[in-house]
Amino acid sequence: DAGVIQSPRHEVTEMGQEVTLRCKPISGHDYLFWYRQTMMRGLELLIYFNNNVPIDDSGMPEDRFSAKMPNASFSTLKIQPSEPRDSAVYFCASSPTSGTVTDTQYFGPGTRLTVL
Amino acid sequence: RKEVEQDPGPFNVPEGATVAFNCTYSNSASQSFFWYRQDCRKEPKLLMSVYSSGNEDGRFTAQLNRASQYISLLIRDSKLSDSATYLCVVTPRSNFGNEKLTFGTGTRLTIIP
Question: Which of A28, A59, A104, A105 counts the highest number of beta carbons within 10 A?
Fold first, then answer.
């Protein structure tokens, strides 16, 4: 069974360029999460979706960041324009709907973004 | 104050030893607790949930102390493969089955042969 798929795995770009990160969640999962991980701040939730609808985007750092989920099998995180401080590993995770406390989020391998 | 605080380590422990980590959380309304494991340059993966009564999974034991707002992870008979960063995770619980997770910055563990 395929896990969460992210692309690209690595991205190097120059300041001011647009960056688009892509995610395919596990089939049948209703929740999709975008995280950013840095050494200084650890893993931070940026935004999450339920049934393709954004539920909480309070973690999105600023207007330069936007996320979409046009269907149940695809989501994008876009940064425009990119800045060096956006350099981080961006993870996508998905989770099924469940009423138990053992909900698990399944993470993709991440996209390592470097903005020069 | 951070919502979830962990000692970043590193903890360098000889193989076979027992090691314990603590994690404190600031939101007393937090209802679900987890330990995730993250290997170097890999994604986080769920290690175990933490229940109010404490729970054990093989060599791993997790405890929750709501009064003091901390959770702990104990690893017995440590193996080289236990080397990783351990992330403490808490979440409030609503009527939905899932909520956003708040991660600690992690405790780095290295098992020495």
Answer: A105
